[in-house]
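hi got a favour to ask and not much time before my train. below you get a single protein, a line of residues and a line of whole numbers that encode the local backbone shape. could you go over both lines and see whether the tokens make sense for that sequence. a few lines back from you is plenty, here it is:
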Amino acid sequence: MQSGLSAHAAGLRGAVITGVNAAREDTELAARQTKLLENRLESAHIKLNEAVGRNKLLRDEIDNLRRERCVFDQACSKGVPRCAVLRH
């Protein structure tokens, strides 16, 4: 009877792993697969952190622009009546 990993390895290679080396090959395959998945996870983690960093910068820029708009709107709202008074 094959272990689950041996069946998986057999599916990958197209042959059944049997004999004295089956356990060692299962272990090697599991180690390679684990390393591959850990590398993928690390890459995804790095991309996520980069995206979070970019989003933080963009959020900060948006907040600054909103503050500037509020200041500008306040200045314009105070300035418009003066312009209307000066025109008359």
